[in-house]
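for the record, two folds in this file. i put them one after another cuz i was lazy. first one right below, seq on top, structure tokens after. the second one comes after a little note so u can tell where it starts
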Amino acid sequence: MTVADPEISKDPLIVFMPSGKNGRFAIGTPLLDCARQLGVDIDSVCGGRGICGRCQIVVAEGQYAKQGIISKKGNVEPLTEPERRFDARTGLADERRLSCHARLLGDLVIDVPPESQIHRQVVRKRAELRAIDIDPVVRLHYVEVAEADMGVADGDYQRLKKALKDQWGLSIEAITDDALKALQANLRKDKWRVTIAVYGGRKIIRLWPEFVDHLYGFAVDVGSTTIAAHLCDLASGEVIATDGIMNPQIRFGEDLMSRVSYAMMNEGGAEELTISIRAGIDQLFDTALAEAGFPRDRIAAITFVGNPVMHHLLLGFDPEQLGFAPFALVTNEALERTAQALSLESLDAGTQCYFLPCIAGHVGADTAAMVLSEAPQLNDEITLLVDVGTNAEIVLGNKTRLLAASSPTGPAFEGAQISSGQRAAPGAIERVRIDPDTYEPRFKVIGSDLWSDEEGFTDATKEIGVTGICGSGIIEAIAELFMSGLLSRDGVIDGSKQDQCRRLIPFGRTFSYLLHEGIPEISIIQNDIRAIQLAKAALYAGARLLMDEMNVDQPDRIVLAGAFGSHIDTKYAIILGLIPDCPLDQVSSAGNAAGTGARIALLNAGSRGEIESLVRKIEKIETAIEPRFQEHFIAAMAFPHKTAPYPHLGKVVNLPKNLEPVGPQNRRRRTKRSKT
């Protein structure tokens, strides 16, 4: 490239858009070389050999007054033979050229399409969330290595490192044992040409005796109830498949503390739990790869997130210290392991596994991933993030300060501890409405778009049936009972309305509400309501502690995350007092934010340092030892709350006028029916 005055230089001017970077280069210079010298973001795996097709560009035509040039297709060398071969094999999009072979003949303006950019963005649909800049930690490089020579002492590995330095500018510092063992055979299979997978720009983790242009990775959210894995293309960021399984540790206990107790009370218990979780993840990977049709050596990187107990057990750490105060972690730093170290036999031994950092005891890597996904630290507004699960993780803050806590909500939100409760699966009631005049219900079940009172519902659900009620369904059912006046503010079913509502059935010393007649009979009983009250009060109390510490009456924005949080209707979450009052248009669901954070850490190498630095600044509020927690918990048992005002909710719904507790005379009448 020359820096001569453009008025006297004979070298053509080239401008790359959208970056605007420009410079003058000698006629005949490949456009990819021009881009690299200017620092323009153009991808390439094959090193300019016209094989991968990643470096496609578009030659713009027209007069560009700002640059003082006229750009036209004739200012580029005509289609070359390598481009014709690529076009015949794969196909070039309209008007596109391979920048590695198209050569400069005159002034040009070049458009670099998003799919040709190294640091391209995958923009997610929700506007308030960040785009994902694609900058994977593992990259592919096709390289030609000098043949072995009796007159040269260097070994094959040394000559490979030299080739990567000369052709790609990489300074390799290490190579995995498996890659080193396979090096000589692979180099000689295809005339000393190989594709190399480089981790972090410095470590060779895999090589192939052929041209390989795609690598994949898994982003895994290890929850206490379910394990979800996203299979992603590391180059494009595309999610190829998402799959999940029930956490096999459930047989040792539904909640985290029961599993910690199992590890403490049984010799070898912790190891048994570790073997169980690893086997489940291995099975998940094996199934996903079989369905996608990918060989296992194409999986180069994994990111894991999870609560501290899941994090410790997956890594093989004994979780005993997480069972009692001060809930000490083995480490809260990010960790790197290999698939071999984790006994993941479905993957190649050298597959790189990254564990996001934990924040503190019971506020784990899943919370860190949620923060990475939702980025409250970038905003002035105060955001409340809530990952709703068997243990709710809560983050509150903005760009000046971030606080975190956890609350023991238990499994009620996921259908456990509910008399007719079940996991979210086809046949489970997920939506409920109760007519305030007739008290008759209608509902939707997972697997059908029809309401139960619509024509065709019976036929539509014939195969799946109506099998139970899941978390979102029980939330809406209780909220509707409250809004219809059948449930008091303190959570007692009002038996005095039995004559007006045929669905109020005496149940022991209390009453139940018959939601579904038939087989199975599905009712909401008093114990179901208590289980939800206990769970929602714990969650609210944790959030309230953070608000006290931040000295705010309400957050500016609330984001519900997690599998349950993504399915609950936010209006009903506020009606029950699950979360503090907030303008309803500022309450949203983020889906599996922890999984999204894991995906960001998989696809963007820089995000790892970002979250590792950020978690050191997050302040942990320990609910277990905070005396105000009990006070907030008791007040939050009421619907929506005993003392906290809900003015924003009052603008949207008409709360029941009679919010007084139900008297003893209305709590018990004759007993007609009982359940076990």
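(here's the note) second protein begins now
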Amino acid sequence: MGKWMVSAKKADFNGIAKRFGIDPVIARIIRNRDVMGEEAIEKFLHGTIEDLYDPALLKDAKKAAAILCRKTRERKKIRVIGDYDIDGVCATHILTVCLEQCGARVDAVIPHRILDGYGLNERLIEEAGKDGVDTILTCDNGIAAISQIALAKQFGMTVIVTDHHEVPYEVQADGSRLEMLPEADAVVDPKQKECPYPYKGICGAVVAYKLMEIYLDRMCADGVLSVEEKKALLWDLLAFAGFATVGDVMELSDENRIIVRYGLKRIEQSENPGLRALLAVNELTDRKLTGYHVGFILGPCLNATGRLDTAERALAMFRTKDSAEAFTIAGELKALNDSRKEMTLQGTAQAIEQIENTDLKEDKVLVVFLPDCHESLAGIIAGRIRERYYKPVFVLTLAEEGVKGSGRSVEAYHMYDKMSECKELYTKYGGHKMAAGVSMPEENVEVFRSFLNAHCGLSEEDLTEIVHIDVPMPMSYVTPELIRQLTLLEPFGNGNPKPVFAQKKIKVCSGRILGKNRNVGKYRVADEAGCEYDMMYFGDLERWNTFLEEYFGKEETAGLYHGGSDRICISVIYYPDLNVFRGREELQMVMQDYSI
């Protein structure tokens, strides 16, 4: 269990509540998200498309758009090279659709995760040369492809990079960082030091979307398409920008909130056969979508094909006009994701066994080598292990050429910066603060592990997860109206978590285990005043029941499920919800964490 901390940020909550017509509790939550000032609060609660930043602020965006307009008019062959994850697939779709709409000669290639690895490589450049490609347009990759882009320039190609990843750098003698940018004709990446774009947290698909806004404006000015056609196209493609923002786990702050809020609506209403089929096979048609649906149901289907097959299938699903073909592909993607889930469970179990039965568990940075694990699952398994141990984690697997792996970090550890301190160990690496990818010779694995642990600079406090409580609030304060106001704070996700509240001295009176897999707990609980509530728990039931047995005994715990208990009294972190059954609304609390 993590360390509980109440957010205690100050503001005039009653004044904010009165100004915006919200409950003071909602005002406190907004302040906890570091949203301050009337303009920022208004944008947080009611931001619209008009509040998005001008795409022309992206360095080189106007230059890149001008090049693409010229290449479109000249009928030069343009090749979009994307990436095999959600962001890369959505970005590729956005670029190709817009370019095709304006009559460009364009095709798209998505690298194969295992055969090609991440981003540009020499084979892709050579293949483009053989195919007579004039211009390479990258999306969600390219910022680190210095040698590959140099090769493309040798072939006489024009290269435009659109990316959102960290710019590679070298540390100078004075400790400063010298950016190492590829010699492309235009580099559009908000992470560049000289890029004036005010919000750096957009994903690759949003960078692509912003570039296409400028491109389409210019093509409108040239009479290639009407203003109405441009608006309709951008409105449709907002679904893919929002999808990618959630799927690539971007922070849902600033303009990302607006992109996702409108993007989710567009997914619900989309006429794209691929999106409609994906909703249908996951039984989400005609449902109000949230970030959860994209992040944990729809998105993993796209990622699964890039992990276990080829992401070209996901792109084909979005691009087809044939509903039957879309349904076939969507069904295949869901089946692949179901298979991926089972393989992930097996790999996670192997990783835990290795940690628990070796000296790995003493390390502050976990480097787990699973030679037989499918390399595409390394990142997911690393994330699961990070959740369990709350330590930075690398999961490495045996690949065709040495070892490949992925890392997932904790808040106190900048993974990319720390990796950069021993970059001579790798054949390839990249990433950012919270996640990274790496390739290296097998003989370097132990050296890598030793170096990272010797130089991690992590304290025990850094490795204690902090559970942030928005408001200590009695369950008796919860009303259906408060729950409805909580929806103003959506979409929830990275950077804008679902608000949680805490209350002490809650008696757990009775319980039942529900669900096909018997993995959901439903309890009747009471506060000190004797008011009773339904409380659900969707977490680790085994861990929860072990906690109850440790503090209240096996007999009392068993009695909780058979007749009830009057001795189990705990503190809980919860969020309130409305359960709608046969047209009736009933309050229920959802337990997130617990303590004595």
